[in-house]
Specification:
The chain is α+β, with helices and mostly antiparallel strands and 144 residues long. It has 4 helices and 5 strands; from the N terminus they run βααβββαβα. The chain has a 5-stranded mixed sheet with strand order 1-2-3-4-5, with helices on both faces. A hairpin with a 4-residue loop joins β2 and β3. The longest helix is centred in the last third of the chain and has 15 residues. The radius of gyration is 15 Å and the shape is globular. The termini are far apart.
Protein backbone atom coordinates (compact mmCIF):
# COMPACT_ATOMS: atom_id res chain seq x y z
CA UNK A 1 0.00 0.00 0.00
CA UNK A 2 1.47 3.34 -1.04
CA UNK A 3 1.23 5.96 1.70
CA UNK A 4 1.85 9.70 1.66
CA UNK A 5 2.31 11.78 4.79
CA UNK A 6 0.99 15.34 4.74
CA UNK A 7 1.04 18.02 7.44
CA UNK A 8 -2.47 19.46 7.72
CA UNK A 9 -2.75 23.07 8.83
CA UNK A 10 -5.61 24.97 10.49
CA UNK A 11 -7.99 26.41 7.94
CA UNK A 12 -7.37 23.61 5.45
CA UNK A 13 -10.38 21.59 4.37
CA UNK A 14 -8.49 18.39 5.25
CA UNK A 15 -8.47 19.32 8.95
CA UNK A 16 -12.26 18.97 9.07
CA UNK A 17 -12.75 16.31 6.40
CA UNK A 18 -9.81 13.99 7.15
CA UNK A 19 -8.21 14.65 10.53
CA UNK A 20 -11.25 15.49 12.69
CA UNK A 21 -13.08 12.18 12.15
CA UNK A 22 -10.05 10.15 13.23
CA UNK A 23 -9.24 12.34 16.24
CA UNK A 24 -12.89 12.36 17.32
CA UNK A 25 -12.93 8.54 17.07
CA UNK A 26 -9.98 8.52 19.47
CA UNK A 27 -11.59 11.12 21.74
CA UNK A 28 -15.35 10.36 21.63
CA UNK A 29 -16.33 13.32 23.84
CA UNK A 30 -14.73 15.74 21.37
CA UNK A 31 -16.95 17.23 18.66
CA UNK A 32 -15.52 18.11 15.24
CA UNK A 33 -16.30 21.79 15.84
CA UNK A 34 -14.50 21.82 19.18
CA UNK A 35 -11.59 19.90 17.67
CA UNK A 36 -11.11 22.50 14.93
CA UNK A 37 -10.99 25.29 17.52
CA UNK A 38 -8.58 23.40 19.75
CA UNK A 39 -6.38 22.49 16.78
CA UNK A 40 -6.10 26.14 15.75
CA UNK A 41 -5.15 27.17 19.28
CA UNK A 42 -2.67 24.30 19.66
CA UNK A 43 -1.11 25.08 16.26
CA UNK A 44 -0.06 28.46 17.64
CA UNK A 45 1.82 26.48 20.33
CA UNK A 46 3.63 24.25 17.82
CA UNK A 47 1.20 21.36 17.36
CA UNK A 48 1.20 19.81 13.90
CA UNK A 49 -1.19 17.17 12.58
CA UNK A 50 0.35 14.76 10.11
CA UNK A 51 -2.13 12.73 8.08
CA UNK A 52 -1.38 9.43 6.38
CA UNK A 53 -3.06 9.16 2.98
CA UNK A 54 -3.52 6.15 0.72
CA UNK A 55 -3.13 6.45 -3.03
CA UNK A 56 -6.93 6.81 -3.35
CA UNK A 57 -6.80 9.98 -1.21
CA UNK A 58 -8.34 8.47 1.91
CA UNK A 59 -6.80 9.58 5.22
CA UNK A 60 -6.11 6.38 7.16
CA UNK A 61 -4.11 7.69 10.10
CA UNK A 62 -3.06 10.84 11.87
CA UNK A 63 -0.69 12.02 14.57
CA UNK A 64 -0.74 15.29 16.44
CA UNK A 65 2.77 16.18 17.58
CA UNK A 66 5.02 19.03 18.66
CA UNK A 67 8.66 19.62 19.43
CA UNK A 68 9.43 21.07 22.83
CA UNK A 69 12.52 21.74 24.91
CA UNK A 70 12.69 20.24 28.37
CA UNK A 71 15.29 19.49 31.02
CA UNK A 72 15.65 16.15 29.19
CA UNK A 73 16.58 17.95 25.95
CA UNK A 74 14.50 18.53 22.83
CA UNK A 75 11.58 16.10 22.64
CA UNK A 76 9.07 15.31 19.92
CA UNK A 77 5.87 14.77 21.89
CA UNK A 78 3.03 12.87 20.25
CA UNK A 79 -0.27 14.12 21.65
CA UNK A 80 -2.56 11.90 19.56
CA UNK A 81 -1.92 8.96 17.26
CA UNK A 82 -4.77 7.09 15.64
CA UNK A 83 -5.09 4.69 12.72
CA UNK A 84 -8.39 3.84 11.07
CA UNK A 85 -9.63 0.88 13.17
CA UNK A 86 -10.35 -1.17 10.02
CA UNK A 87 -6.73 -0.82 8.89
CA UNK A 88 -4.75 -1.42 12.06
CA UNK A 89 -1.88 -3.93 11.88
CA UNK A 90 -1.30 -3.10 8.20
CA UNK A 91 1.93 -1.12 8.73
CA UNK A 92 0.35 2.34 8.69
CA UNK A 93 1.20 3.12 12.32
CA UNK A 94 4.77 1.89 11.87
CA UNK A 95 5.19 4.07 8.77
CA UNK A 96 3.84 7.09 10.64
CA UNK A 97 6.08 6.46 13.67
CA UNK A 98 9.14 6.02 11.41
CA UNK A 99 8.42 9.42 9.86
CA UNK A 100 7.99 11.05 13.26
CA UNK A 101 11.24 9.55 14.57
CA UNK A 102 13.04 10.83 11.47
CA UNK A 103 11.50 14.27 11.99
CA UNK A 104 12.73 14.19 15.59
CA UNK A 105 16.25 13.25 14.49
CA UNK A 106 16.36 16.10 11.96
CA UNK A 107 15.20 18.52 14.69
CA UNK A 108 17.94 17.39 17.09
CA UNK A 109 15.55 15.75 19.54
CA UNK A 110 16.80 13.45 22.28
CA UNK A 111 13.61 11.36 22.29
CA UNK A 112 10.10 10.77 21.01
CA UNK A 113 7.52 10.54 23.79
CA UNK A 114 3.81 9.91 24.13
CA UNK A 115 1.18 8.98 26.67
CA UNK A 116 -1.11 6.00 26.21
CA UNK A 117 -4.21 5.18 28.24
CA UNK A 118 -3.58 2.48 30.82
CA UNK A 119 -6.23 0.17 29.34
CA UNK A 120 -5.09 0.54 25.71
CA UNK A 121 -3.23 -2.77 25.57
CA UNK A 122 -3.20 -2.98 21.77
CA UNK A 123 -1.39 0.35 21.57
CA UNK A 124 1.02 -0.75 24.29
CA UNK A 125 1.95 -3.86 22.29
CA UNK A 126 2.52 -1.65 19.24
CA UNK A 127 4.76 0.80 21.14
CA UNK A 128 6.74 -2.04 22.75
CA UNK A 129 7.24 -3.58 19.28
CA UNK A 130 8.80 -0.25 18.26
CA UNK A 131 11.24 -0.58 21.20
CA UNK A 132 9.56 2.20 23.16
CA UNK A 133 9.95 1.91 26.93
CA UNK A 134 7.58 2.87 29.71
CA UNK A 135 9.70 5.59 31.29
CA UNK A 136 7.26 7.47 33.53
CA UNK A 137 3.80 7.63 35.01
CA UNK A 138 1.61 10.49 33.83
CA UNK A 139 -0.58 12.00 36.55
CA UNK A 140 -3.62 14.14 35.81
CA UNK A 141 -6.16 16.07 37.82
CA UNK A 142 -9.41 16.66 35.95
CA UNK A 143 -10.72 20.17 36.63
CA UNK A 144 -13.74 20.33 34.32
Amino acid sequence: MELTLVDVMPGERALVADVAPLICALRPRLTPERFVGLAAEAYSHGLVYTGVYREDGRCVGVAGHRITSTSRGRVLVIDDLVIDPELRSCGIGARLMDALVERARRAGCASVELDSGVANHGAHRFYHALSMAISAFHFALEIE
